[in-house]
Each structure stands twice: as structure tokens, then as C-alpha cells.
Write a structure and sequence with these properties.
homodimer; 219 residues; alpha+beta; 3-stranded antiparallel sheet; DNA-binding
Chain lengths: 219, 219
DNA sequence: CGCACATTTGACGAGAATCAACTGCAGTGG
DNA sequence: CCACTGCAGTTGATTCTCGTCAAATGTGCG
């Protein structure tokens, strides 16, 4: 990160006020021209069916960008919804600089490209998860993804990470009913695959959970 | 489309030889630097689980680009596989020109952006389909998507479009077993929602199928 | 004709949804 | 201080969707 980039980031940043759970950061179809960095909390990309069924297509966590699309002029293909209370920073200036003059801000531009790449890959993961995996595999697979992403920002010695979502919201992410999420989580706790306490999850055995997620270990 | 763009496209194009079903156009992880236009046939973006389960994450049909990513340097996040015999044209030159000098080829650049936008939106559709829809809804929803895309290239008076996929492959797209695809298709034919004959599907009543796809009409 | 492959059928079981009720708990206000 | 409220989590009973296994039928093709 060069001097110009550092200066850009350390400029006075407009902190947005706290945002309540359920608030829509960006509406379906709106222009994604005001990207934000998530300081704390989680955002979900939400699609609704007419009869009320809900699918959360992607999750965005603290340290990641939201309401952001690397392609100028892109519109929201889903609603961006606060799944928890949020603190955000507007980073439109930084992002515009990086995307508009990539040669002057090479590292920023690279970071944005990687973030975008990651988000795309995650979307394919999500299709596989809900399309072809069993309930316990979906949970294991998601837990590993979230653990990896949290560890990148806040490395944890104990393989623990925050899980502020209710089981209902989790169901909307995983394509499962609340009740089934609950029962499956219980079974996974009994099997020593996952510990869930006080709004965070812990993975006692990463290798083991990996086997479960990949389906190589039967239920 | 300006003169320069037209000249670029009408230059001698290297036709690739026919490609057989099952051939891998681009391997998982490979650099997507040789985009191709599909002259005929369908390509699938394929992800495999260790135990052999397969999820087709996206479909690409004649008239669309494959092995293409608008972001320079992007790698394949799934295997690009020929789901039918294929005829392709290499369009790396055209795409490089459009992405490298968007100001000189504004229309081409716009087309590529739209194609990319569409692909992304389709991916969200796919998550909703396999995550929250019932079997007959998934089929209806996919049929409408394919109809719309075909109609854009080859408008049809009878709401018909080619369907070269076997029910097994269709199952891998929809996250369903072959048997269940078969039974569900039969029921939908009986209900007059879909006519399937000789490698093509026909939609007798678009509005009706839309209701089914949106879940507003119960099974 | 015979082969390979796609579609279809039946029987059965497993995974997940649904409905309804109950528990636990934090916040609120009397 | 404690009833009251609302919400998240839990449980049981039941139903439904969908998967699996196996076999049969249909179809294009060398």
C-alpha cells in the first residue's frame, strides 16, 4: 500500500449512525454507488418469493464491503438487509479512486478485485450447498466458510467466531426450516462437531468438520 | 455499433472444431483468458463433491459467451463442461479490445457488461431456485429463464425452445434426482404446464407457468 | 439385430417441512 | 419486586417431498 493510498484511507471518515436489524441498506434494483465498509454486524443479500419464502443468497460480515459492486453502474440484484445491528463507513471515495484510477492505487484496486472474486466464488459455494448438500453438511460447510473469513480479519486461537444470526435467519441462508436447523445443530453439538455458546460458534476439530462438509463422513 | 467494432467482428474468425459432450472447455482454477462464443450447444458450470454428487451452477446456451469473465485475470471457479456437442468461436481478440479500450468500442463493452450483469443475476436466481423452491417450481422457473434467453436470440412464436439436456443433467442443475425430475415433468405435462417433445420444450401458457414458478399457484 | 443410453415405473425409506405447544430468558412497566 | 410481554430456542407428532434401489421399457444407431 503506497503513500497516496494510505493518505486516502486515513482521511476523516464519515461514520454512519448505528443501523437497526432489518434495515435495508440497498433496495433491490437500486444503484450500488455508495459502497460501505462493515465495521460491525452482518448484512444479508435477500430475495423473497411472493408467498413470503425468503432466501438469503449471500452473507457479508464485519471487515467486508457491502452495497458494493466492482462494475460501475451495477444495480442491486437482491435487497441488502441488516441481519444484526450495524455500524458502517461510507467508502465511496476510496472505492471510486481505486476503480477509477487503478494505476495510482494498485493495492487498493487489487484488494477490491480479490474481494469481488471471493464473493463470486462464495456464490457458487452457496449454490452447491443448498443444491446438493444435506442439512448437517450445509451447516458444516457454512461454518468453515465463516470461520475462514473471520480468521482473516481477527485470527482466533480457538477456532471460534461470532454467530449473531438466529436459527430462523440461518434457515433462510441454508434453505432449511427453523426447526430443522435447530435439530441438526443439536445433533452436531452432540457429535462434537460444533460448540455454540453466547452468540459464537467454536470448531473443536477443523479437519473433522471439513470431512463432514465434504460429505466424506456419513451422517 | 460503430465502424471499428463492426470491422473487428467481421474479421476472419477461427472456428473451433466440433467439441464432444463431456469435454472440459476450461478447468476449475484455470485462467479465463480465452473467451468463446457458443455457436451451438450448451455449456455447464460444474462443481463436484468428493463423493460424486454434482451440481451444475449455471448454464450457458448458444449465442452466449463461455469461459469468459469480465474481470481481467479471473480464474474459473467451476469447471466449464460441454453438456451437448458444441461449436465455439474464439473471441479473445474482440473481448480484449472491448475490455482494454472500452472508449473505442463502447457498444461491445456495453454488451459485455450486460452479459456479465445477467450472469450474476442468474446466479442469484439459481440460489433461490435450489434453496427455496419445490421441484415443479424449480422446473417452471428454469423453463421461463431458458425461454427468455432463447427468445432474445431466436424469437419463437410458439414459446418453444430447445432442451438438449437429459433428465439426469437437468437433475444436476435443479438439485434433484433423475427420478424425481422425471416424475415431476410428467405431472407438469399432465397439468398442461409444459410440452416436451423431440428435444424441445414448449410453454402453452406463459402466464400460468409464471404463477407456478412464483409459487402463487399451489401444486 | 444388438448395444448403449435415456426414460419410465414401482416399492420403499430417509430427510426435511409443518403445526402446535412449551421452555427459557431478557426487557418493561406496574 | 414481580407479573407481563416478546422473542429465540426447543420438543413432539405428523405429513410430505424427495431420494434410493432395482427393474422394465423405449429409442437411436452402428
Amino acid at each position: 500500500m503506497n503513500v497516496r493510498e494510505t493518505a486516502l484511507i486515513s482521511a476523516d471518515l464519515p461514520f454512519s449512525a448505528g443501523i437497526a436489524t432489518g434495515h435495508e441498506i440497498a433496495a433491490l434494483g437500486s444503484l450500488l454507488d455508495r459502497p460501505k465498509l462493515i465495521l460491525s454486524g452482518w448484512v444479508g443479500l435477500v430475495r423473497l418469493l411472493e408467498d413470503g419464502r425468503r432466501q438469503i443468497v449471500d452473507l457479508q460480515i464485519a471487515g467486508e464491503l457491502t452495497a458494493f459492486d466492482i462494475r460501475p453502474g451495477a444495480t442491486a440484484k437482491a435487497a441488502y438487509v441488516a441481519l444484526t445491528p450495524l455500524r458502517l463507513v461510507e467508502v465511496g471515495d476510496v472505492v471510486d479512486a481505486a476503480t477509477g484510477q487503478p494505476d495510482r492505487f494498485p493495492n487498493l484496486a487489487a484488494v477490491l478485485r480479490m474481494a469481488d472474486d471471493d464473493a463470486y466464488s462464495r456464490l457458487l459455494d452457496q449454490v452447491v450447498r443448498v443444491g446438493r448438500m444435506l442439512a448437517h453438511e450445509r451447516i458444516a460447510h457454512l461454518a468453515l466458510d465463516l470461520h475462514r473469513r473471520h480468521d482473516r480479519v481477527v485470527p482466533s486461537l480457538s477456532n471460534a467466531f461470532p454467530m449473531p444470526l438466529t436459527q430462523e435467519v440461518l434457515g433462510d441462508v441454508l434453505g432449511l426450516s427453523t426447526v430443522h436447523v435447530n435439530r441438526t445443530l443439536q445433533q452436531m453439538r452432540r457429535d462434537g462437531l460444533l460448540k455454540t455458546a453466547g452468540g459464537s460458534w467454536q470448531i473443536p476439530d477443523l479437519a473433522l468438520l471439513n470431512e463432514v462438509a465434504s460429505g466424506s463422513r456419513p451422517a
